[in-house]
Amino acid sequence: MKRLHQFVLKSFLGPFFMTFFICVFVLLMQFLWKYIDDLVGKGLEWNVVLGLLYYASLALFPMAFPLAMLLASIMSFGNLGENYELIAMKASGISLIRIMRPLFLLAVFLCCFAFYFQNNILPRTNLKFGALMVSVKRQKPEMVIKEGVFTNDIDGYSIKVDRKSKTSKMMYKILIYDHTENRGNVSVTIADSGYMNISKDKKIMVMTLYHGGSDIDQIANGEAAKRYPFQRTSFDKETITVPLRGFDFKKTNENSLRSAYHMMNLSQLTHFRDSLTFRYKYKVRNFALRLNYNKVLEKSIMELCQPVDSMKTYEPIAFQKTADYKTFYKKLNDKGKEEVLTSASKKIKRNKQLIDQNTSELYSLKKIINKYSMEKYKKFTWSFACIIFFFIGAPLGAIIRKGGLGMPVVISILMFILYYMVSMFGEKFAREDIWNMFNGMCFSTFIFLPLGLFLTYKSAHDSGILNIEVYQEKFKKIIKFIFSNMGFIKKNSHENSSTNE
């Protein structure tokens, strides 16, 4: 049995390592497409580019592990089935479960290693990658400027461009706010196009602008101190010199990036999430206390919003009787009714204003808390996906009985895309607090783990439900039944009988 297990492991390890590096390479292409405009033609040193690719490749390992497990499982069992080796093993009295046992232990080991990688190595990898990327952006200020958004990373200036050329350094529809004098948006420059050049010592940036104008609000002195003269100029070509600070290539201090959720391990995520949760509850408490209520309800809410006291018990509000507001309101004179309506209107407006001011802030803070919780669950779900895809890939390989990179690749990609889509669906519902965090993050596990166990069980018992020939026969019977009801088969049989006569 040891030789059999060694044979199965050898047939699996080769496809696994091959498909693993293929998966990393394919996923790395996504990174290159995302940052291709920032890396090509910027004069970056090769060691910097290689460093970015190295850290980006390591960051893709959590997704490559389960995908490689799925591909290798289908390929290895497909090769065994195609060469009739799997049939020979079953004919010798060895069940599929016993054949899968060494690979299952390997999948468990890979699951543990993937979790260790995501919890201990991946946070440091993301930290190194983030620090290097920030350093590259500081060295190349033109990389900082993105299309369609304001960029404030260049000291004293806020810059927005609508479009950047992919073949040259030219930028189009440029809007520049000059904040060097700390007087607000009093100096605005608009240009149809332009480009940026950095001096060799990386201390000065020269912006060359074409076909635009500048609007400046100038503050007068003396008797006209309260008057703000307005100056407008136009130009066909304008050169603006901007001193740069901190854009020379120096490695960014990694401590400034450690608060990002994807750069933390489990203990750090738990600590940071608990701190944010305490801050969130404190803000909710202050928000609840600032709203206007009636006196009875206000007193109860103040008691409920106090910090938890184990020696104090809170009892629900007990109203002795319900007030008849309609009768009370009818008894008031016109002035009293007006005062009641005015007071109620003021309280409603104030409550609405407070709700509008605090809702977005609380919502944003809760989404940040959810991101830290989601990152914790991802370390478990993507690691456990190695075992899930093993239970899916091994029986599928035994069913299709095809090895190589043909059918297994197609099935694996479709299955992985489906898993990824279901996972993103659950994560979105968890992030928006529509579902419980555990249910949302484990939604894909709840669906694909039973599917994998079902496929394994049916394949181990040679069930006809997984035999393609069974479906082909049923399909032929359905087609024959449809055509017979339409009269084609009877007509042909009658013609045949008459010919025989």
Keywords:
single chain; 501 residues; alpha+beta; 3 domains; 6-stranded antiparallel β-sheet; 63% helix
- What is the structural class? alpha+beta
Query: What proportion strand?
Result: 5-15%
Shape: extended
Structural domain tally? 3
pLDDT < 50 stretches = 497-501
Strand order of the largest sheet: 1-2-3-4-5-6
Number of helices: 15
**Biggest sheet record:** 6 strands, antiparallel
Number of strands: 6
Q: Helicity range of the residues?
A: 55-70%
Question: What is the average of the pLDDT values?
Answer: 78
Short description, anyone?
By secondary structure, the chain is α+β, with helices and mostly antiparallel strands. The protein has helices spanning 2-39, 46-59, 61-82, 85-91, 96-139, 141-144, 266-290, 295-304, 325-331, 334-400, 407-431, 437-441, 443-460, 468-485, 488-500; strands at residues 150-151, 157-164, 171-178, 187-198, 204-217, 230-243.
Description:
The chain has three domains: 2-138 and 380-425, no CATH class; 141-243, no CATH class; 261-372, no CATH class. The radius of gyration is 34 Å and the shape is extended. Mean pLDDT is 78; it is low at 497-501. It has a six-stranded antiparallel sheet. It contains 15 helices and six strands. It has helices at residues 2-39, 46-59, 61-82, 85-91, 96-139, 141-144, 266-290, 295-304, 325-331, 334-400, 407-431, 437-441, 443-460, 468-485, 488-500, and strands at residues 150-151, 157-164, 171-178, 187-198, 204-217, 230-243. With 501 residues, it is an alpha+beta fold.
Topology at a glance:
Layout: H1 2-39, H2 46-59, H3 61-82, H4 85-91, H5 96-139, H6 141-144, E1 150-151, E2 157-164, E3 171-178, E4 187-198, E5 204-217, E6 230-243, H7 266-290, H8 295-304, H9 325-331, H10 334-400, H11 407-431, H12 437-441, H13 443-460, H14 468-485, H15 488-500
Helix pairs in contact: 1-2, 1-3, 1-5, 2-5, 3-5, 3-10, 3-11, 5-10, 7-10, 10-11, 10-13, 11-13
